[in-house]
Amino acid sequence: MEAGGLGAGAGLQPVLDSGFGSRLYSSLVKKLKAQGREAFQDYYRELFGERWDGLAAALAGESDSLPFVASPGSEPYFMDSASVFAASALDLPEEGRILDACAAPGGKTLVLASRLEPTRARLVANELSADRRRRLAAVLDSRLSPALRARVELSGRDAASLCRRMPSSFAAILLDAPCSSERHVLADPTALSAWKASRIRSLAQRQWSLLSSAFLMLEPGGCLVYSTCALSPAENDAVVERLIRKEGGELAIEALADPRSEATLHGIRFLPDRAGGAGPMYVCKMRRVPGPGRAQAV
């Protein structure tokens, strides 16, 4: 520490010792440690304000589920219409490899596979969990034609570190990242009673690891779609913003639109109270472009 200067601890201590600083610190700690239904409601009411009660009711209601058929004559897979939008937003190449980085339970993988037909591209459906990967395989085996199923390869790697083995290896990547999934939390009393705000912070860090790795696995010119079913901007725009700051001019955000959606800083979101039951779903579309410069919107 330089003479006359203050270290980080020394500068912070007077604030913590003051009445205001002590109350602020206690409030932050209390919010992070708070658990259960009341803590959940307080957190999202602070985030959404007067809108929260109506949104919470919509989250507890019926979703805009539709029967998606990946191959003619195959068994339908019921999924949220916003999930179909997210997988459909990915631009597929004429040839090369496509990665579904966190593929289970398989709905978005089916959407991607159903779009392979006019191309010569192949799809890698990656899922780290062996249990979830088995269920993913069952979904694909039962709902894809033999010709399409042969073009989908299963993988069990951790997508957050896969970039070390496979840099610049995929022409298109869908990252539907693990997230808070508040709609499911509300429907599960056990999950709701265990809910903590600190989980959002942990998930956002995992999402960052996955997104930064996915970007490094993308070929120059390739398309990447990042999606979650989370409500908090900490798991959505904030994760994308971190990537923009890291990658600079190699990353271009591309515009998305749907009449049911709401614009966010870097993408769009579907919230069930204003999207006919669809969502929650956050979707951001980006492209890896070579050359210096600043990250830009297209």
Explain this structure to me?
With 298 residues, this protein is an alpha/beta fold. The chain has one domain (34-297): Vaccinia Virus protein VP39 (Rossmann fold). It has helices spanning 8-17, 19-33, 37-48, 52-60, 81-88, 107-114, 130-143, 146-149, 182-187, 189-194, 198-217, 237-247, and strands at residues 65-68, 77-80, 97-100, 122-126, 152-155, 170-176, 218-228, 251-254, 262-263, 268-270, 281-288, 296-297. Strands 3, 4, 5, 6, 7, 8, 9, 10, 11 and 12 form a ten-stranded mixed β-sheet that branches. Strands 1-2 form a two-stranded antiparallel sheet. β1 and β2 form a beta hairpin. α5 (81-88) packs across α6. The protein is globular, with a radius of gyration of 21 Å. The N and C termini lie far apart (45 Å). Mean pLDDT is 90; it is low at 1-12 and 293-298.
Give the averaged pLDDT, no decimals.
90
Briefly, what CATH class?
Alpha Beta
DSSP E strands, number: 12
The number of helices is: 12
Series of H and E elements: HHHHEEHEHEHHEEHHHEHEEEEE
CATH superfamily: Vaccinia Virus protein VP39
Q: Helical amount among residues, as a percent range?
A: 40-55%
Helix-strand category:
alpha/beta
List low-pLDDT spans. 1-12, 293-298
Instruction: Please name the CATH topology.
Output: Rossmann fold
Strand content: 15-25%
Instruction: Label the CATH architecture.
Output: 3-Layer(aba) Sandwich
| Overall number of domains | 1
